[in-house]
Structures are given as C-alpha cells and as structure tokens.
Amino acid sequence: xxxxxxxxxxxxxxxxxVSAAVExxxxxxxxxxxxxxxxxxxxxxxxxxxxxxxxxxETLSACYDSDAVLLGAVGGYKWENLPQNxxxxxxxxxxxxxxxxxxxxxxAKVYSALLSSSTxxxxxxxxxxxxxxxxxxxxxxxxxxxxxxxxxxxxxxxxTKEEVVRIxxxxxxxxxxxxxxxxxxxxxxxxxxxxxxxxxxxxVHKDYPEIELSDxxxxxxxxxxxxxxxxxxxxxxxxxxxxxxxxxxxMITGSLGMLPSASLGTKxxxxxxxxGSAPDIAGQGKANPLATISSVAMMFAxxxxxxxxxxxxxAAIDKTLSMGYRTxxxxxxGTNLVSTKQMKDAVIENFxxxxxxQALGVFTL
Length: 365
Ligand code: IPM
Ligand code: MN
What we know:
Layout: E1 2-10, H1 14-31, E2 35-40, H2 45-51, H3 57-64, E3 68-73, H4 89-98, E4 103-109, H5 122-125, E5 129-135, E6 147-148, E7 153-154, H6 161-176, E8 181-186, H7 192-205, E9 212-217, H8 218-227, E10 234-237, H9 239-250, E11 260-264, E12 269-273, H10 290-302, H11 307-322, E13 325-326, E14 336-337, H12 340-360
Parallel strand pairs: 1-2, 1-3, 3-12, 5-10, 8-9, 8-10, 13-14
Antiparallel strand pairs: 4-5, 4-11, 6-7, 11-12
The structure holds 3-isopropylmalic acid and manganese (II) ion (MN).
C-alpha cells in the first residue's frame, strides 16, 4: 500500500511533536509493508510570516491530494493581535471547513501508569473510557453574521438539520461498536439552536433503537465529567461545547499533552493533538509527543483500517509510561523525566518489542 501524508507541523512545539510522531509512523509503516510519502507544508503563524496568510492554496491542494493530514499545532503570542482571518487559528478553521471535517473525535481514556498524575483522585478516573464526538464545521465558529464594532460584538449560533444529522449518525455508528450509550450535550434550556439540535438528534436516534440516548445541559456535563467520568461512553455535542468539554476531559488523562484527535469528513481526514502550540516551551525539547503519536494511531485505524498497527502504537505508549518515562507535563516524583526525543525513542523501542511479542504470540491484543 502506498500512502500520501501531508504534514503541517505549524507553530511552537508543533514541529517537535510532528517529527517525533513521523518517526514512529515510519517504523510502524515498515513493519506493516506500507510505503509512506510525506509532503510538508506551512500552516498557521509560520505561513503568515512567509506568505502573509495562515493558509495558502498550495497547502490546501497538498491536503486535497493526500490520504491523510497530520497537524502539530498553530498559534502563538506573536500573532495574537492580528485580525481573526489572519490569525494562525484561521488556518485550522479554514482546513476544517475546506476539507469538510465535520466529525471531531476526541477520546478520553486513562493510562493506568498516569492514574496519579491527574489532579483528580485515582479512584474517580480509574477505568474511564469515553469519546467526545464534537461537531466541527458549524455553530458560532462559522455562523454569520459575526463581527464587532466600537459598541458591540456578535456571533451567530446556527445549525442546519443536515449538519446535526450527519454528526449524530457518526456518533451513533461508533456507539454501536462501543457501549451503546450516547449523551447528547446542549444548552436547550436557553438556546433555540440547542433546542433544535436536541430535536434532530432524537429523530436520528429512531434509526438506532439499541442505543440508550440521554440529554445533558453543557454546564451539568462539565460538572459530571469531573465528578464521575466513568458514567460516559459517547458524548455527542456542538462545536463550541465540544471545544470546552474536551479540554476538561484532557485532565482525566493527566495532561492536555496526552489527548489525540481525529477530524473526519466524507472524503478527507486530519489528525492532530488536542493541545496547542505551547510557545513558552517551544524549541526546548520538553514537549510531550504522546498525543501526536496517539493521533497517528488514530490515523492508522480510521483512515487506513490498519487496526493492528494502531493497537500496537497504543500498546507501546502504554508500556513506555509503565516504565516510568515522563515528559515535564506528566512528571511526578519517582518517575523518569525525559525529553521529547527520549520519549519518542522509548516508544519506538517498545513498539518494536510489542510487535515482536505479538508476532510470537506472547502478546495478546
Ligand atoms: C481546538 C482548538 C481550536 C478550536 C482553536 C485553535 C481554533 O482549541 O482544536 O480545540 O477552538 O477548535
Ligand atoms: Mn480547544
């Protein structure tokens, strides 16, 4: 199999975590007889600095011409005062819209070795395994009109029926393969748009009678995720609420540096860590590459149906953490503080090991 991957390292720690993940990808691809062809392009602040805009036609056409896109992170203090459409973040939003990536999947699962790195009590988070389905191309993020003048600022929260139907279907389909429980999160007690969302989600649910569907207001959901995260299987929610809830969910895994994501449409797919560009630690070799490496595992599973490769990457991450390797964001006394590169090297070594073990039948997935 020949696969074309567009790399968008972006800003801050983006290039460091992407190059670490690419090395893991190469090792895995070789084991599974896949040939990867990489095309690296600029997106975000780095693109603005060179071309005066965060997302160019060249970058977009590279994405259209690839089997999957891997993005690091975009943004930084340097570009904070630019108008919205020139900010690095506009590259990400532009990519999501142009590639039609309406389903954003953000899994929140606990690695047992990290139980004590979360600020939440181990007994509260142990065994947590849920996934957030965040709608990614609608809501206030894209609604018109939007703007501000001297006296007011405004945005429009809007969803069409088609937009709600397709994300609801994505969530129900995956829930069928998991615990068959979906919680749809909205603010239907206040917002008309959310009331509409709820109505449409229930209509779609009629096609999935085996699924237990419940509704939750977003303020309550934020509280429930930290109170008792084990109650969730699939959370289905609007773009803005999903943005906020996925950062909360990240703390279950101990660090935002651990959370991967997949953004899928009908034709294209983009994978990226949930964390940002962390300009304060950029270029110092301190960044945690695990969220990006785990995003690669999602790419293998969702884009290439290489489930075994995906599981082995996850197993390698698990093993590396169990051996005590920690970047600064997940460090605790008694563990082994390592750099981005050392973490990546350990994951590769463990990947090769779990691969050999499963080849011998010692390791069971
Ligand atoms: C995310 C980020 C983005 C978002 C920003 C960078 C535009 O926070 O992917 O969660 O708000 O969607
Ligand atoms: Mn976010």
